Amino acid sequence: MTTASNGYMNGYMKMEDGFPATRLFNQGYSYTYDDVIFLPHYIDFSTDSVQLNTKLSRNINLSIPCVASPMDTVTEASMAVSMAAVGGIGIIHSNNTASEQSSLIRSTKSHRIPFASTDIPFLSPDDSISSASVFNNSPCVFITNDKNNKNLLGVVDKLTWEGLPDKEARISSYMQKNVVTLPNTCNLKDVAGYLTKKEMDFVPLVSGEGEVINVVSKWDVERINGFPKTSGLPSVGENGEFLVGASIGTRENDKERLEHIVKAGANVIVIDSSQGNSIYQIEMIKYVKKTFPDLDVIGGNVVTMYQAQNLIHAGVDGLRVGMGSGSICTTQEVCAVGRGQATAVYKVSSVAAQSGIPVIADGGISNSGHIVKALTLGASTVMMGSFLAGSTEAPGAYTNQGGERVKKYRGMGSLEAMRKGSDARYLGDTAKMKIAQGVVGAVADKGSVLKFIPYTMHAVKQGFQDLGASSLHSAHDLLRCGVLRLEVRTGAAQVEGGVHGLVSYEKKSF
């Protein structure tokens, strides 16, 4: 260890500053991320040399430590595709039927480019188009025999329809037949080159069975090429397909769901429960590992070492940490149980590291600083809900609220989500009354994750540089050996650490 990193300077006595994590987190206080601050360490490397590659679970590696939460207003196919494209992963929610969840998984696996077109319109030859709203945001409408995305017969582009003298005419009388398509296995560079060479505005991408998987326009290409490039590799399997996870519950019918989603291609399973230390989850973990021994299983949620140890003994390949720390979660308020997220992550990571089990810090992530703290305290990845909600890739349509463009974001413990089935996550009985442990809200438009995730990761790298840690592994080592020091922030210190003393300001992260 260098003289500087050991705390000695030019022969002076060792100077004690701050507290090691072992001391700070053993005083009986429940700290969250804003309560604590790391003291800066010694820099001898550039920001660009910081490596953020990590493990999601025992056998799944990621280029960046980002996981999209299995919430029905956060992660479906579009989010999962984009997260995998930037090096993270999305966990498809289970607040739907097993068939619907499996379809979202297959859709994710069928893409090779960084985005998935949502709500592609399909009509039959006998239909007519009476309104431009039919096109949604798509440059065209696809024509099939059965109004689904197979057996493509033709296409109607919006410009052609707008020039029709008779808008009530049947589609069969003017649709473009013999549609030019490309295989869905093409990458963005191949698609872009083809559009330029053929001077086309858009091209559908189809599977080997003739199913329309995506539609890419020249404007999509320009948009994607304008986003910052990530330093990490996309999250793909040996077959070149994007990695994707899926959540399940702990009820008997979840065993049948498990069969469906494994067959659909899920690479990892997250057992979704607000309190994971239960006989129901332990039995489900054992069932999954017995039925599919090569499939990684992430258990949780947990916040204590005792909880974590129980799930580790049951055979989990990863742990999800957090209880009541999400922005839309009211578990701590309603049930009087939980833990401050900084303390929870540190405590669980301490015991998980002894068994080589990666930890996902789930909840409470509002900015890049929170990500730095979660990862340094022992997490291998962070799970994001509100951080990704409101993005282009999040499910749902934008609405206007108070002059601001927003999307709905709801907790899986909200009554609205529970009515669709998420009450199983809270060990609820569908035949009994439901007690809300979450709320329904709205989140401002954030734009595309393809843009703000790369910027966020660069900010995280800057944080690691200030800590003197060139990787997650290095940060964990520095924390464990006591080189990295922390302090608790007073309320005034937290105010001072943010924007203050201004009459007005505009805050932009990038």
TrEMBL record:
Q: Outline the extent of the CBS domain.
A: 175-231
Query: Which residues does the annotation say bind NAD(+)?
Result: 272-274, 322-324
Q: List GO molecular-function terms, semicolon-separated.
A: IMP dehydrogenase activity; metal ion binding
* Residue numbers annotated as active site: 329, 425
Chain sites annotated for binding K(+): 324, 326, 329
Query: What Enzyme Commission number(s) does the record list for this chain?
Result: 1.1.1.205
**What InterPro entries does the entry give?**
Aldolase_TIM, CBS_dom, CBS_dom_sf, IMP_DH, IMP_DH/GMP_Rdtase_CS, IMP_DH_GMPRt
Q: Which reaction does it catalyse?
A: IMP + NAD(+) + H2O = XMP + NADH + H(+)
What family, per the record? Belongs to the IMPDH/GMPR family.
Question: What highest taxon heads this organism's lineage?
Answer: Eukaryota
Provide the species name.
Answer: Lactuca virosa
**Function, as annotated:** Catalyzes the conversion of inosine 5'-phosphate (IMP) to xanthosine 5'-phosphate (XMP), the first committed and rate-limiting step in the de novo synthesis of guanine nucleotides, and therefore plays an important role in the regulation of cell growth.
Q: In which pathway does it act?
A: Purine metabolism; XMP biosynthesis via de novo pathway; XMP from IMP: step 1/1
> Gene Ontology cellular component?
cytoplasm
UniProt name for this protein: Inosine-5'-monophosphate dehydrogenase
Q: Which PANTHER family is this protein grouped with?
A: INOSINE-5'-MONOPHOSPHATE DEHYDROGENASE, INOSINE-5-MONOPHOSPHATE DEHYDROGENASE RELATED
Example GO biological process: GMP biosynthetic process
SUPFAM superfamilies hit by this protein = CBS-domain pair, Inosine monophosphate dehydrogenase (IMPDH)
